[in-house]
Amino acid sequence: MVPELHPQWRGLDLARILKADAALLNMDSQNSILHSDGCLAAEGIWKRARAPGGSLENTLRLARACRAARLPFMWLRYDRFIGEKQPCNPMDEVQYRFWNREYTGDADRKAWEAELVNEVKAIMSPDDVTLVYPAWNIFVGTPVARWLSMWGTRTLILSGYHTDWCVEMAARSGRDLGYMVVVIGDACGSTEEMHDTALRQINECYAPVISTDAAVRFIGANA
């Protein structure tokens, strides 16, 4: 559920900031989370995402609106197994070992987990940027900020998974780095309790949270 826009954001002209200097950043619309055979399928996020009006459908709607407005895209993927960041200290080692204690996939299977789902691949453009990020923060160990600088980006339109993890961290870090951040709440997903809690936290502290309907309307005003 998308929370009501916090009073602190009501003075914002969202149609103005969601204009040509905005970019869509989507996190982790990938098989590990959104496929019924993904390694995180037990969380049930894929079921809610793929339901009518779910976050995957909303992500595709959001992408179509951004495409019509000629906004740049970045599709980010998290590789919890074989990404650029390997366990490098005792804390990493015990945590990664715990996460993967029952996982038996080979290299091909692990690569599949980090691939974007087919619905997203179907709407991608050759100009879209797709990156694997090695940490929980999309700005750490990646050229994300460099791409945003080349595009002249001031506003980050965020969607993806998990709401309480990578999306919230991107919102917090984005604000720290001087970007204006808008989170599209019903184009994000996590476990239900954590999703709702994270959206409230983001909305009350870091960035306005709006619906896909509202985002499409605001972005369409600039198309």
Characterization of this structure:
Helices cover 42% and strands 16% of the residues. It has 223 residues and is of the alpha/beta class. The chain has one domain (7-220): Isochorismatase-like (Rossmann fold, 3-Layer(aba) Sandwich), CATH 3.40.50. The chain has a six-stranded parallel β-sheet with strand order 3-2-1-4-5-6, sandwiched between helices. Helix 10 links the parallel strand 5 (180-189) and strand 6. Helix 9 (163-176) packs parallel to helix 10. The protein is globular. The model has no long low-confidence stretch (mean pLDDT 92).
Sum this structure up briefly.
The chain contains 11 helices and 6 strands. The protein has helices spanning 14-17, 31-34, 45-50, 55-68, 90-99, 107-113, 118-121, 144-151, 163-176, 192-205, 212-220, and strands spanning 22-27, 73-78, 129-133, 155-161, 180-189, 209-210.
User: Helix fraction?
Assistant: 40-55%
Largest sheet: 6 strands, parallel
Order of helices and strands: HEHHHEHHHEHEHEHEH
| Separate helix tally | 11
CATH class: Alpha Beta
CATH topology-level fold name? Rossmann fold
Assembly state (oligomeric): single chain
Distance between the termini: 27 Å
Secondary-structure arrangement, i.e. CATH architecture: 3-Layer(aba) Sandwich
Supply Rg.
17 Å
Tally of strands: 6
Q: Tell me the CATH superfamily.
A: Isochorismatase-like
Assign the structural class, choosing from mainly alpha, mainly beta, alpha/beta, alpha+beta, or little secondary structure: alpha/beta
Bin the strand percentage: 15-25%
**What strand order characterises the main sheet?**
3-2-1-4-5-6
Report the mean per-residue pLDDT as an integer.
Answer: 92
Q: What overall geometry do the principal axes of the alpha carbons give?
A: globular
Pick out the low-confidence regions.
none
Number of domains: 1
